[in-house]
Amino acid sequence: MDRFVFLTFDGLSNGAVYAAFALALVLIWRAARVVNFAQGAMAVAAAYAAYSVTQATGSYWIGFAAALGTGLMIGALVERAVMRFVGHANPLNEVIVALGLVLFIQAVLGMLYGNEFLPSHTPFSRNAIEVGGVPLLSRYDLFVFGAVAALVLLLALLFTKTSTGLRMRAAAFAPEVSRLLGVNVGGMLTLGWALASAVGALAAMLVIPTELGLNPHAMDLVFVTSFTAAVIGGLDSPPGAVTGGMAVGLILSYVSGYLGSSVTPIAVLALLLIVLLVRPGGLFSATVARQA
Amino acid sequence: MTLQKHLIFTALGGIFLFAVTQQLEPFRNYQLATMAAYLCATAGLTILTGLNGQISLGHGALMAVGAYTMAFAQNGIGNLYLSLLLAMLATTAVGAIIGVAAARLRGPYLAGLTLAVALAIPAFTVTFDGLFNSEQGLPVSFTPPETLPIETWQALTAGGSALLVMFLLANVVSSRFGRAMRAVRDNEVAARLAGIHVARTQVLSFVISAAPAGLGGALLAFLAQNVSPGAFSLTLSLYLLLAIVIGGLGNLAGAVWGAFLLVALPDLTNSLTEGITASPELARKLDGNLALAIFGLTLIVVMLVAPGGLQSLVQRISHRIRKGRNHV
Amino acid sequence: MTEILQVRGLVAGYGAAPVLRDIDLTVPTGSIVTVLGANGAGKTTLLRTLSGLLRPTAGQILLDGKDLRRVKVERLVRLGMAHVPEGRGVVAELTVDENLRLGGLWRNDVNAAVAEVYELFEPLAQRKRNAGHLLSGGERQMLAIGRALVARPRLLLLDEPSLGLAPKITAQIMALLQKLRTQTGLTVLLVEQNARSALSVADSGVVMSLGRIATATTAQELRNAYLGS
Ligand SMILES: Nc1ncnc2c1ncn2[C@@H]1O[C@H](COP(=O)(O)OP(=O)(O)OP(=O)(O)O)[C@@H](O)[C@H]1O
Ligand SMILES: [Mg+2]
Prior knowledge:
The structure holds 3 protein chains of 3 kinds. By secondary structure, chain A is mainly α. Chain A is about 70% helix and about 5% strand. The termini of chain A are far apart. Chain B has one domain (about 1-230). In chain B, strands 1-2 form a two-stranded antiparallel sheet. Chain B starts with a helix and ends with a helix. Chains A and B meet through helix 4, helix 9 and helix 11 of A and helix 5, helix 11, helix 13 and helix 14 of B. Magnesium ion binds near residues 43 and 44 of chain C. Chain B: One of its GO terms (molecular function) is branched-chain amino acid transmembrane transporter activity.
């Protein structure tokens, strides 16, 4: 029973990260109808930037800020310099270009930092706080929940309450009309990519210290897991991404807790397969848009 | 008619292969064999992505299926040709399973699913380590013939297999079924109206594409005399995709270009890095990564500048030269 | 300077063959000018070119004497030119209120401008929180025109506002255009299939045919020629 409680909290903590990363995928999907397969690699690049800054300054928090800033910049750069020029004749084009980015970014990181795992620290203890003799969750888990909750809140405010959010939604839904109404649609697209990339960077900062450490491939599995979460929620739906992320986090926590952690990737595959074949609309999406 | 043409090409290719393997030094023969192994996989993927419009990031995983089957068969029975055949059969079966799921998915969803397949491969070998022996992998034993240098024998075996694959796939491309595949790729609704069974065509395309990938994986295991999950990482799948995109989607000749690049470029960058850097630390970091970076960059640039790939670029340039001449 | 818009020798199209050939058009400030023509004559293409959605291959477009060729589409509305596109362009996923605000997000007085539009179109005020896709055709047209007015334009390009509307509603819209012209000095370039409605309010008009201006004259003469009264 203790173990179940522990696994539940651990799963929710991981789920919060998957939710954030899935949100980033949904952001770009809504803005550009692209699944950004390079998001994991982009997020890792931001985490490496944080590593360097923390090394230089000795401060976790300056590094943390650097990760978010780098995330914004990488996102904007990828949209401005690459994605904007991809032809739409074939829907596979964007996927293939994003995969090219994965190869490129990971290789550049490997050249700069090497392919070994670098140590990655947390700003708070990861030892679980015991409540009535039962280890529940750690200070770091609380930090993760807080960060993701703040993120969700800020994004919700941005999109529903600000004029920039209104512009971003309009540009995604009706680009041509939005231009006629004075919206800088290209700028909104860049902003969407930048935001999503920063959100991905945040997720990477939160999750990497809880796994093996920093490595060019550190987010590969997180990407697929979060993609699964986003698909469960329906790629179009931010609340779906959050719920999907939490659900996937829980399921994987139980799987790895009771069956062994090596089974996790197989469980992700099985989960994705089941969702794709059984619930083609996602749980939260109004449309059946699997045939994108 | 086309069958005859393909037969003649294959026969010429066989003679050429035989002549070349006699001339090359052992290391080059080994590289030739590696290229032939990759060619099986790139040719298979070309059929799937280029001709049928389905993307797969799981072909590296299919190669792993072929490679592990090869190991089991070699260590159990020990007949090379039977092992290669079994590897193809096993991969065909797995390909059919993935293909059934794939036929219901499109674009990014299919890419995501096959990506998950690629990432699950190491997990399978660890979870069932009694069978696959985790990360260490399995040896692949065989007895080389006494009359030939081993690399020549490897190049002949792999090259011969690749020729066979190219011959069979070329006939698929020009067959009725090949036309059905293209029709489905171009417009599913129109294909359905024309009486083509879309889902069946897609599943069958996946199967036809999986079999040579399995053979390629088996050949890689045969060349390395060993099989481990590290050799079949996601990067391998991305490599294959890259190879067919650069070579030219949907073009079997492009698959040859791609396979050639996969062997030649790392070789080139390795000699480059060895030449320019003194520090072993830097050389270690550059090793492999430089080739990957160039691959990634090339993939992006090709998609932006010449989505038809190298093959189409060559065609375009030669077309332009011919046109230019006519003008003069 | 009495003409707000001047077009000279305009050539534009989608592929190799131009759709618009050698268009000359003058729109006097404070007038209502209508563009008539059969299906496929090039009316929509003309408006899209004026707004910069299509780049002309030759010719000049002058707004207040300023050449628009290098101006970005999204800047035009700030220069005083608003375009209600064919099919109205209501963003189905946004609410009525959001659609309206979108019309003038860059303005400091956007709230006041939106409030004025609610006064002008009372049915919209009752449906502020409804998503665009829930509106009727007439409400959509009100929303599209209202949204353009939020920008407080001096020149309004309208592409077939009467499309799919009952004659009564069409008449209301035409009356509104006339009212706006007299009250605020708004200039209107009105593309219409419905020549009778358009000519009821227009001062002058042009008839397009196969991408050219076939006739350019006063509304009175066009009424005589086309409506036979
Ligand atoms: N996106 C496009 N690509 C290619 N050709 C187009 C495009 N849009 C319109 N055309 C062509 O340009 C010509 C003019 O079309 P346009 O839409 O301007 O006509 P219109 O006068 O607005 O007609 P309607 O009254 O039916 O709206 C037509 O021959 C049409 O086929
Ligand atoms: Mg029109």
